User: Fold these one by one.
Assistant:
Number 1:
Amino acid sequence: MVLWTLGFLALIGAQTVATGREAVRLGDRTLQRVQLETLADAAITSELFGLVAGQAMPVPQWHNAPEEGNTRISVRSMADRNRINPNTAGNILLSELLAASGMSQDQSRALAASIFSWRTPANPLGFAGGRKRCKPIGAPFRTFDDLNAVPDMNPMILQALKPHLSFAQIQLPDLSSADPIVRKAIAKSGISNSPDQKHDDKELGEETLVSVDVLAARGRYRLGRHAEVLLLPEARPTPWRVIRWETTTRGEN
């Protein structure tokens, strides 16, 4: 009986120690994540203020930011001019983007018309047939879930479109876009009148969508943060509007 009792107590003790160690590890991971997230957000904010003040231009290559103690911080930023905004693109450009993404011409024209009608209250096209009847909402697309609500849209098409779309980009892209699908759609649509047009890299413009990525690493811990903001140099107190701000990577090396 004594031996059984001692064995039972030993088992309880081992479980308690194991639980305590796991709690300590979890607490350490949480502390590291919060600290890295704070430093990463500070690096993003610093980068944005530099861009708004004209002290720097977006640099798409990773470069080192000032280290904070034993934390290594890398930053990259890019003016988002490479993609197509389904809220501002015309019917022809949408059709050519769908065709360049793998759809047939007939399918791409039909879906482009649906997207255009869905966002345009002045063009009240109804959708019926074998599907449930839907009516356009006449509101801008803000997420891919919004776009997925358009009749004839399906997850496969949406997945193919995702890398080429931006819901916040203001300027139309041109043939200097880094995205070959976007370049093909623009060339086919005929909206570009110069094959060698380039952006003015010395000027961001009054309102420009900029994405900033930061990677913060400390020992075996690392965390990535991504921000998409619309720069508004004249706005106060914060000269930008946040479109998306999220964690992209989190964990241990």
Number 2:
Amino acid sequence: MWLVVGLGNPGPEYAGHRHNVGYMVNDVLAERMGSGFRAHKTGRADVVEGRLGTPGNPGPRVVLVRPKSYMNTTGGPVQAVAKFYGVEPDHVIAVHDELDIAFGTLRLKKGGGDNGHNGLRSMRSSLGTGDFYRVRAGIGRPPGRQDVADFVLSNYSTVERKELPIQLVEAADAVESLITEGLEKAQSRFNS
């Protein structure tokens, strides 16, 4: 079984923000699984349970997770859901925004630092390791002297919103590839 954690902040006021790209990717995956998010028994996250794959090859069980906490306290809900399902960190995938990658670009990896990302830092702290997979959706750096926090907590630009659906589908495809084909094949396909 795999946990796919879409990082973001709960609530409609954050829905279109760059920091919520993980939530958006999980929405695409939930649609593919033919199900909507529902409250998990822990009360700390919304989840979708199912399988990602083709009808002839349904693939392993997957739980899509949207923590019901703000980004900097994501780890607690992730740990609670992982414990509930008995999933170890090596079967956890965090889908998140990445400042150091250009918008429209993806990178996949396992482990590594948090690079100042509060959601990753919280997950590392709560899981006791950073040795989980990451699907990093590039958002690029803020223009000019815009504060980083203001940038990640703002909506995508008009131009970016036109291209965003493509990035979300590619990131969802990358998650599926990672689960069904492994990291090396997924990286060769999606690390552009």
Number 3:
Amino acid sequence: MQSPLDELARSIRERRAILFVGAGVSMSVGLPSWQVLIEHMAKELQLDPERIGGRDANYQTIAEYYRLKLGSMESLRDWMKRHWQVSREKVAASAIHSLIVSLDVPIIYTTNYDRNLEVAFEIHGRDYVKVANARDVARVTPETTEIVKFHGDFDDETSLVLAETDYFERLSFDSPLDVKFRSDALRRTVLFIGYSMSDMNIRLLLHRLWSTWHRSGYESERPVSFIFMPNPNPVQEAVLSRWGITVLSEEKNDPGEALQVFLSKLKDRAQQSSVPSVPDRR
């Protein structure tokens, strides 16, 4: 019987897996935290950070207030576009980004707004197509890796999922990108990396993925899905297992180091086979 890592590696090798990439991957190369965003919005709105919750403040709610007060998110988007990036040299030196590219998965979803994944593909000479809205979906080709900006892209302000209302509207899971994700996830193994399990948005996404299969009556046919956590957590493992998600982990003190070790092992396992890969991009 295959180990979970070997099962995932086989899906990677046969191009039946997709990645879902979270903020932890971008923070590994020095991207600002949500707290930095909160402090910037508070300063621009002339708010006392302590009066709006201090370190417990919710960036989505403050972003909602920002839009109410200023009428749009354009100024905030421009600030984030300038600051939510790192140099190409840092991306080039990132073992995590290099490993992501080398896994050669056909589709990468990300809730990150930055261009680090796109830059990594450019640095390593790999073609990709960015998908941030319904128009972009029509540009997808089977031969090129898709980088799906699930929470939007700085080049399209209307695509950003940042304020509280944006998140609430996405809870219906009926936008073009939601429909696309359901289609992709129904027939592929999904690996989630770079996420905190305290993020209720990703937890809801995982639950909805399970619920879709559960209601279908064909749950036993569902491709296995995985999530990487830096350290084992028996509570999370039990809850996520109920939703059909297998937790994989590495016992390292540094989350970035743990993810790098995991991706390196996954790459090695995916390449350890005499069975030729199947060139199926879709």
